[in-house]
Amino acid sequence: MTEVQDLFRRNRAEEFSRDVFADFVVPPFFGRLPIRTQTKALVIEGGRGCGKTTLLNYFCHPTMFSPKQPEASIREVSYVGLYYRADTNFLAGLQGDEHPDKVYLNAFKHSLSYNIAMELAESLESINCTDERRDKFGRLESLDFSELEEMFGISFGRTLADFKKSLERLKTRLAMWLNNPKPDNTPDFLTPEIFLTQVIRLLQVQLPYLADVRFAVFIDEYENLLEYQQQYINGLLKHGRGALLFNIAMKHNGFLTRRTLTNESLQQIHDFILIDLEHEQEKGFELFAAEVMLFKLVEGIAALGAHVPIDPALLRRTDDESLRIRCEDAQYRKQVLNCAERLLPKMTEREVAVQVLTNKKLRTRLAENIADGLKKFSTSLTVEDFIRDDMPEASVVSGCLLNRRRETPEAILEEMEKLKLGELTKFGRKSSDWTQNNLFGALLQIYAVARVPCPLYAGFDSFVLISKGNLRHFLELTRRAFETIDRKTIKDLPQVDVEAQAEVVRQAAYAFLNEVRGAGTAGNQLYGMVLTLGAIFRQKQRAVEQSEPEINHFSVSRGAEFSEALARFLAEAIKWSVLFDEPETKEKNPGVPTRDYILNPIFAGHFQISFRKRRAIPLTEQELMIMFAGKLEDKDKMVRTKVGALNANLSLELDLGP
Q1: How much is the pTM?
Q2: Distance between CA atoms of residues 311 and 464, nearest Å
Q3: What 3-state class would DSSP assign to 41?
Q4: What value does the mean pLDDT take over residues 20-24?
């Protein structure tokens, strides 16, 4: 029997087969993707976990011609996707002093040729994977590849099986030559532009149903290629035309160069169309995340179908009407989101404030905040005057207001009395709403200092914000959340406890934080930066006065260009989605261009900071370089200086550890 916890364990493309038809939920932005109608190269960009590889698999032949596809949908063959993933271990070996650079380039071209040709061969089998399609298309047994020997001096046999065996031999021979190079055993190198074009021409002549087909190669993990390899691929992107087009998928800042081997340069719009998956996905991520979660539940446990307002078949369709229903039908959206919120319930800020007053440990922490504030004034008012069970939000906020010393205790208490009487008050006036501006941050502060999981991290909508358009992050949070329920087969919709959700966010944040160490060649520097930046944000969030609540990003003045070292570190941080960069929301110095750099909110639970983008702190280039590459004692001093606690006894957890 399937347990609900098991349905979310697979959240990486590598854990699925290449035929993803049964598991793929068509994203709401699908209609905006110019993939099957492309006439120029596509550059698909996005961070780790945003779904690049899964999307590529959907557009490549194992899924496009899946036996699970309705036969009626395979009326003709007009577009065939071919997948190539950079083998980093193999390709990294194509450099060094053993051979001239040109030989390594030719070896790279050769490996591309036989790998993509194998995809071509296997695509024919995908197209003809059912009896009905073999009757409709077929003719594979009549294929004859023997004429290729005359062109390339290599025997590829006659049949499709012979052709595939020949490609395997080419792969083996190249690997053996690289491991044991000798002048007399150098392979005859193939070139993709020539070899693949001739193979396609042969297929189109012998299989009439391929006569007008466009073959599109998708090169995944392009950022892992060496610079000269990228230059060669760039040339394929720039000059791909007719029946053979080349595309790439990569992380942000994946280009080592935009130059080609002939010193031309790739230009967006003219040479390629950029598809930023995270940007596309973030627009409608709330609905999409809910659909994916419910889809997995229904597909895994059929009995739940009666309780869930989605139709898995609808989520697999790509026609305009199906996408319209999902994206534009307000009733459908409401039902889906309501169901997701029942699965992952939340507490309102008022309910969390009530919990502060009813939980002994939290109430004591609030009382200490208020007492600290009252000590700053000469007043006869007491803590009890400000803790009002009938005004939980105002009670919580009063703790930070008293510590700012901008308003006297008497003035704050007067506003509380107005609130009690239903009069206009600063606790609710829009222009200066003490509650709206401070409650979220004040609650985080109380829970963090009291070391109690904060319910503000719980709830479907919080999971969505914490995931920031990253489906892998959302599914990992969901998996961990469902693992907290009773481990038994269920017949009704499960509901995850709010406190358990909050603890799950903390655990997941720690797990994802540790993954940063493996983020490319600068993983340790990125990890050190996250620890240092997180320490600053955490200490500011724990400040009782909360004069600037919810600080979780920073801005950098761009009056001058960054140093090469800092530019490289920031590019790596963005590539690996440790940071996100956006134009500054509030320009403090008009005319001086600045950027906001946002710490990935998936880490918020570990540092006990806000996952909402609210307030930023300014940082200098020198401070950033200390975060990335400074000594531990320099990081410690900088953090203490930034949070105004130079001599305080703080545990900052800045050491990289083992």
Answers
A1: 0.91
A2: 22
A3: strand
A4: 92
Beta bridge partners of 248: 43, 219
Give the pLDDT mean for 131-135. 92
Least Cα distance to 104 among 246, 226, 259, 258 occurs for 226
pLDDT digits (tens, 9 = 90+) for 47-56: 988 989 999 9
As given in the structure block, the two tokens for residue 74 are: 């395979």
Pairing state of beta strands 41-45 and 272-276?
parallel
User: What does the domain layout of the chain look like in residue ranges?
Assistant: 40-283, 349-456, 516-642
Instruction: Collapse the DSSP code of 102 into the 3-class scheme (helix H, G, I; strand E, B; otherwise coil) and give the result.
Output: helix
Query: What percentage of the chain reaches a pLDDT higher than 90?
Result: 73
> In whole angstroms, what is the distance from residue 419 CA to residue 406 CA?
19
Partnered with residue 616 across adjacent β-strands are: 553
Pair of tokens at residue 310 = 């989605």
- Out of 9-18, 66-75, 158-167, 461-470, which region has the weakest mean confidence (pLDDT)? 9-18
The number of residues making up the chain comes to 658
Region of 153 (left: φ > 0; alpha: ψ -120 to 50; beta: rest) is left
Per-residue pLDDT at 559: 55
Instruction: Give per-residue burial for 617-647: e unless 16+ CB within 10 Å, then b.
Output: bebebebbbbbbbbeeebbbebbbebbeeee
Work out whether the CA dihedral 318, 321, 327, 332 comes out positive or negative.
negative
